[in-house]
């Protein structure tokens, strides 16, 4: 559920269909940055540097102009203050590797900025990129033609490749859309999506329902919503079993998911093959003392229509281990961020690609790697080696399975 760590409103990224936060891709302030110098500045010490204004360590930003560290709006707003005082625009989150421009009042992103996020990921997870140098070498040794690869990737290429077991390192990037057929609403589909349904909760903005800040102020809203939304009884559908089939054949490299429903895991995909970027619902914790609590306990309170407060000194609210806006993504997201560059086939399914940093995974996919988008609409992917299977995900998956000659899974009825 992580959408942004700095916005407390939808901040200029609002459209007619609802509210969302997506990065600006052409920030006019970015070209003046000295990216090499900034990348050099990212070291171990910097990650432990407290906010210059209040010495807090919880959630800090690196000002990309003066390289000073300041805290976020969720702490004491010293980064925002710094921008007002000296006019420095762009900051890099030392929590979740996102970029925010204070002058544009928006997340920003570009391929050039990857030098900073990838240095950050290297410093934070020094053992995670062992094979990266080898990969870089391999790419450098390729001829130009190999690098550019064929421009087309057709449905026939996909079916033939799967039939012939040609793809050995398949990655998935999934979102709420793959679980819609299981009966769980997504966020943004007008009418049926969750954001259309929270209007009666009188939230200051729809994402507030999953914001840490708002949970602290008005926990009742989240507990009210949990009754209708988080207590679903859903079972995996063909899209989840498709990932499992690829795993069973030994060809699943990783399944990166934004979903918190754990349905791929329930279908049989082991957790070590999954990156649950926005957390999960297998356990809960107190937001103050971090004590673990069970989901049974959490739902007991939800059913009694009460807020669950921990028995610790601070009486913190207890919430499931899903990532709220304002929280860091799990370390596994950053440590496995670069893995996607080793995939030989990538499926992007059921996501509007509006949530960052998750959506930035796409920039790591090699140009030569075929990318298959399975969704109602194309959220703006344009590249070579691209196949868009438009329409209901279950239909597309069932038709792929049939054409490859794979048996469909028997689905459980709820
Ligand atoms: P989203 O922004 O709601 O986008 C869903 C996408 O899937 C949209 O592009 C839809 O058009 C598409 N879609 C929906 N149903 C279908 C279908 N049957 N066939 C084809 N396409 C379909 O959701 P994202 O995942 O992109 O946004 C990320 C949020 C949603 C994350 O923070 C999640 O935690 C959160 N979320 C998760 C769940 C879940 O775990 N099942 C449910 C609702 C929201």
Summarize the structure.
This protein is an alpha/beta fold.
Q: What fraction of the residues are assigned to beta strands by DSSP?
A: 15-25%
Give the count of helical stretches: 15
Output the radius of gyration: 22 Å
Number of E strands: 16
Main structural class: alpha/beta
C-alpha end-to-end distance: 25 Å
Helix content: 25-40%
Mean of residue pLDDT values: 84
Strand count, sense and closure of the main sheet? Answer: 6 strands, parallel
Q: Tell the overall outline.
A: globular
Oligomer: single chain
Q: Give the distinct bound molecules.
A: carba-nicotinamide-adenine-dinucleotide
Structure description:
It is built from 15 helices and 16 strands. It has helices at residues 35-41, 44-47, 78-86, 114-124, 132-141, 144-148, 155-163, 194-197, 212-217, 219-229, 238-248, 263-267, 295-303, 331-335, 393-404, and strands spanning 14-15, 18-19, 60-63, 69-71, 90-93, 99-101, 106-108, 170-174, 252-257, 274-276, 279-286, 292-293, 318-322, 345-349, 371-375, 386-390. The strands form 4 sheets. The protein has a 6-stranded parallel sheet with strand order 10-9-8-14-15-16, covered by helices on one side. A 5-stranded antiparallel sheet has the order 4-3-5-6-7, with helices on one face. The chain is globular. It starts with 13 loop residues before the first strand and ends in a 10-residue tail after the last helix. Bound molecules: carba-nicotinamide-adenine-dinucleotide. Carba-nicotinamide-adenine-dinucleotide binds next to loops.
């Amino acid at each position: 559920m992580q959408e942004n760590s700095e916005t407390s409103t939808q901040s200029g990224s609002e459209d007619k269909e609802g509210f969302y936060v997506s990065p600006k891709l052409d920030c006019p302030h970015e070209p003046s940055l000295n990216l090499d110098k900034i990348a050099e500045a990212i070291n171990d010490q910097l990650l432990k540097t407290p906010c210059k204004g209040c010495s807090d360590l919880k959630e800090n930003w690196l000002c990309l102009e003066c390289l000073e560290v300041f805290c976020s709006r969720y702490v004491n707003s010293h980064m925002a203050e710094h921008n007002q005082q000296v006019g420095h625009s762009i900051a890099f989150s030392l929590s979740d590797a996102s970029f925010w421009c204070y002058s544009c009042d928006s997340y920003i992103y570009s391929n050039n900025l990857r030098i900073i996020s990838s240095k950050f990921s290297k410093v934070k997870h020094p053992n995670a990129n062992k094979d990266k140098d080898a990969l870089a070498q391999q790419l450098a040794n390729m001829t130009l033609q190999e690098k550019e690869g064929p421009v087309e990737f057709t449905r026939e290429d996909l079916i033939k490749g799967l039939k012939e077991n040609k793809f050995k390192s398949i990655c998935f990037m999934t979102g709420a859309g793959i679980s819609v057929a299981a009966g769980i609403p997504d966020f943004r589909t007008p009418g049926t999506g969750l954001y259309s349904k929270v209007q009666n909760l009188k939230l200051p903005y729809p994402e507030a329902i999953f914001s840490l800040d708002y949970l602290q102020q008005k926990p009742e809203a989240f507990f009210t919503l949990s009754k209708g939304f988080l207590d679903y009884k859903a079972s995996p559908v063909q899209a989840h079993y498709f990932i499992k089939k690829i795993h069973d054949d030994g060809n699943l490299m990783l399944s990166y998911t934004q979903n918190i429903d754990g349905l791929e895991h329930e279908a049989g995909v082991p957790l070590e093959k999954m990156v649950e970027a926005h957390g999960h619902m297998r356990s809960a914790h107190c937001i103050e003392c971090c004590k673990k609590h069970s989901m049974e306990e959490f739902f007991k309170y939800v059913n009694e229509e009460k807020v669950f407060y921990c028995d610790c000194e601070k009486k913190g609210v207890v919430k499931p281990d899903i990532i709220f806006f304002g929280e860091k993504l799990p370390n596994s997201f950053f440590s496995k961020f670069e893995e996607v560059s080793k995939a030989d086939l990538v499926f992007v399914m059921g996501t509007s690609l509006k949530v960052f940093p998750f959506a930035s995974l796409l920039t790591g996919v090699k140009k030569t790697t075929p990318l298959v988008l399975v969704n109602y609409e194309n959220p703006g992917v344009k590249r070579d080696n691209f196949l868009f299977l438009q329409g209901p995900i279950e239909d597309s998956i069932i038709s792929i399975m049939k054409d490859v000659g794979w048996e469909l899974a028997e689905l459980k009825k709820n």
